[in-house]
Amino acid sequence: MSGQLAPLVALRWGMLRSSRTRWGFAALAGVGLGLCIGAVIAGLLAPRQWATDVLLLAPTLLLAVAAVALAAPLVAGGGNELFPEEQLVAFPVTSRTRFRASLTLSPLNLAWTTQLVGLIAVTAYLVGQPGGLLPALVTCAAYVALVTVAGQALGWLVVGARQRPWGPALTWAGAGLAAGAGTALLLTGRLAEGLDRAPTTWVVIGVLDGAEGDYAGWAGVTAGLLGATWLLFLAGQRACAWSLRQPGHTGGTTARTVRRRAPARGVLREQLAVDRASIWRSTSLRRGLLVLGLLPGVSAAAAGLSWSTLVLVPGLVAAGAGLLFGVNAFCLAGPGAVWLESLPAPPPVTFWAKTLVTAEVCVIAVVVALLAGGARALRPPTAAEAVALAACAVVTVLRVVATCMRSSVTRPHRADLRGPRDTPAPPGAMAAYSARLACSTTLLAVLFSAASTSADWNVPALLAVPFVLLSSRHLLASARLWRSLAVRSRVVHVIATG
Amino acid sequence: MPAAVELRDLTVRFGDVVAVAGFDLVLPAGSSVALVGRNGAGKSTTLRVLAGVLPPTSGQVRVAGVDAVADPAGAKARTGYCPDVGGLIPRATPWEHLQLAATLRGLPGGWQDRARELLDRFDLGTVADRVTADFSHGMGRRMSVVLAAFHSPEVLLLDEPFDGVDPLGVEATLAVVRELRLQGCAVLLSTHLLALAVQACDEAVVLRHGSVVAAGPAAELAGESGAARYRSLLS
């Protein structure tokens, strides 16, 4: 760790005041490590009957890992930060430290960790025996390092480019080009052919060389990966420095004038209008919503998922949408939270306005993802599949909203969500929230996916009832909690002043 | 006629810390009192309790005859509050703040004229539709005063309204305080700027460690001798 990074990490760790939070965080790290070990054991013990299929699909899996590693920092506006930029202005923190900090925080991204565990399992399965596993895992780790560093470097480069006058047009053109190329491959049926030629095939060959004791081939591939990682690390530091030198790098809403709207009818609608504006005027929320809606849907369409597999999508998308701001929903008011609380509106207005905008964001993201994901379905869904899909969407959105509102009321954080890298909570808390939301929604989705195979559509419909009731109960309990002035006072003061 | 503000034995604790310790205060309508004292003396905490955003640990709090603990919404309807920090929703415009306040306060039609007038007086008319995220500190303070005074409250609570504000903004704030007092509004103002406290208020209360150490005419704190006396009360 560099001279500046170590004290910053120590300070962030020290800011976890309660021992319960520290133990929780340590437990989360332990679970991650345990999953990696479990993945090795599962890979070694799994039946060998799919060995050929896994071998053929391995380059595509590696490519998917790269896609996630490249996309995640882009979505986060250049990677996560240990501290919001405004809190570091008085300290001479170098761009190099900022880049290394964002790299250090990569494992706190649930998608990154999940892909790593999957990759370890596949590597162990490809090797098939303990002998030769170590060099194969070294190659696997080198590949993960390469794509992670590449993602961070690209993220900072794009963030910097977007601050130039030509930047937004260039990045949109780049995104359009990538989307166009993907669509063309998909529509012409040449996607499989393209995937067969993926450069990640060399990584798989390196893994197999290591497993089989061909150390010359293994060393060549692994050294190549490590060398490229080092070069990208240096390039990433430069990209970060360049990005932070750009005049508008904070991505704020500089001197932005908006069109005046007519007053809404009723207090709830007026509050909703202000909250919606707060969402759409935030760079990080706007981009997150766009990516969340489109990326899973397009991926599902590209993979040509069946309806019963598509049932897994709403939960993940809703969980992601909740992470945009819902886990700390009152932060939408930012420093204005204290003034807002001094207005004579009934407390439920603020609570339900935040609940509704969180639900809206989840629903929009889920609907967009499902429309995109279902576009390439070969047949219309059966009644049970359609009901399971709808029920899963309702249940997971409700689950996410109930969880988000509970954490918003009980664990507020100060967050302005002004800059492109701003998140509603510190990195550790975000990792815990994402693990919690992803676990609960995935379990629900698996249940409904199983129910979608039923011949009777009543099965998924009835399955939804207890979950809807349970989430509604949790939501109402949080609303009751919000009625307490002591609770509201704590929330608004943390939100407004930290 | 009930007092505009009535605090009886107000106590606020944050865990082991006593922020306000048995504060008594009675403000008649149309009066103005400056709360002065060192950082952490309990000035902002007192104003937060009166604004209805912080529950008192014990004691009585009445605003324009309304018990602020039993009927917080009734008390909030009668007060206008400018918080000490922030006070603005980052991605909303000044006009949207006023629109939200007008709706939540249930103001009758025609509030727009008053809103425009105040924005112009505080030199914010040209930025009425600009998101406040990039306002300077002084602009934010001026806007917070506008929001506090907008509905012509019975009690005006201003917490550091002059902090970082230019002379024209200070003049506009003093003028609004004068006008509202003439309408019968009681003003409670917390500031570290003694000269402006003396200018804006008739009375002054000096707080230390949450308790009153001196109270009397604000004019007694004016000039060099007043400042020297004030300093002696702080330590």
Which properties best describe this structure?
heterodimer, A: 498 residues, mainly alpha, 73% helix, globular, B: 235 residues, alpha/beta, six-stranded mixed beta sheet, four-stranded antiparallel beta sheet, 8 helices
Low-confidence stretches of chain B: none
- Describe the main β-sheet of chain B briefly: 6 strands, mixed
Count of helices of chain B?
Answer: 8
What oligomerization state is this entry in?
A: heterodimer
**Count of distinct strands of chain A:** 0
Decide which structural class fits the backbone of chain B: alpha/beta
Strand content of chain A: under 5%
Cα shape of chain B: globular
Mean pLDDT of chain A: 87
Question: Termini distance of chain A?
Answer: 28 Å
**Which blocks of ≥5 consecutive residues of chain A have pLDDT under 50?**
none
Lateral arrangement of strands in the main beta sheet of chain B: 6-7-8-3-9-10
Q: Strand-residue fraction of chain B?
A: 25-35%
How do the helices and strands follow one another from N- to C-terminus of chain B?
EEEHEEHEHHHEHEHEEH
Largest sheet of chain A: none
Distinct helical segment count of chain A: 20
